[in-house]
């Protein structure tokens, strides 16, 4: 089944982004709820630090993958074989518990006359990683962004990640890894291309 990918709407005036002060006040509420005293010396600057950290950790909401992928190159001397960038590290956050997802992404595409700068692929992973996510959605978003912008003959994405919502809470199983894949075009219709992608990742 094809993945459904939602484009996040921009905030309008009625659902505007809270101010820095509102974010810091919310952190103080959480500190009190957790059972601590936000006015004690060690926590005085924590609300400002948390708000600043969250701005960086969730900076993907302020960026569009299409803008990053906008520039492509056509002078490829006839190269039309797989382009693979593997072991791209990323840090994201689970949208269910807001705890970290730590993993790596492997992204490949089959050129159709144009190629991307290699750093652009890593940047796309970073953009989608720095949002509240599920691993399944993030995998599909990366593939969709590259597929729609570059129009290649196919895109393959695999993500391997450990979810702290499983390691730190709930079932508390440290070290377990979740794998997700999305294939488009030739990677989806030609099993041999999928096998080649998987082989190159593991080589």
Task: Describe the protein in words.
The two termini are 29 Å apart. The model has no long low-confidence stretch (mean pLDDT 90). The radius of gyration is 20 Å and the shape is elongated. With 203 residues, it is an alpha+beta fold. Helix 1 packs across helix 2 (46-57) and helix 4 (118-129) runs antiparallel to helix 5 (135-150). The protein contains eight helices and seven strands; from the N terminus they run αααββββαβαβαβαα. A five-stranded mixed β-sheet has the order 5-2-3-6-7. It has a two-stranded antiparallel sheet with strand order 1-4. Toroid-shaped homodecamer, composed of two pentamers of five dimers. Its EC number is 3.5.4.16. InterPro entries: GTP-CH-I_C/QueF, GTP-CH-I_N, GTP_CycHdrlase_I, GTP_CycHdrlase_I_CS, GTP_CycHdrlase_I_dom. Residues 1-22 are annotated as: Disordered.
| Count of helical stretches | 8
SSE topology string: HHHEEEEHEHEHEHH
Number of strands: 7
Shape descriptor: elongated
Give the distance, in angstroms, between the N- and C-terminal Cα atoms.
Answer: 29 Å
Helical residue percent band = 25-40%
Low-confidence stretches: none
What is the structural class?
alpha+beta
Catalytic activity: GTP + H2O = 7,8-dihydroneopterin 3'-triphosphate + formate + H(+)
Protein name: GTP cyclohydrolase 1
Binding site for Zn(2+): 94, 97, 165
Keywords: GTP-binding, Hydrolase, Metal-binding, Nucleotide-binding, One-carbon metabolism, Zinc
Present the secondary structure layout.
Layout: H1 20-34, H2 46-57, H3 65-68, E1 72-73, E2 83-94, E3 100-110, E4 115-116, H4 118-129, E5 132-133, H5 135-150, E6 154-163, H6 164-167, E7 178-185, H7 186-189, H8 191-202
Parallel strand pairs: 2-5
Antiparallel strand pairs: 1-4, 2-3, 3-6, 6-7
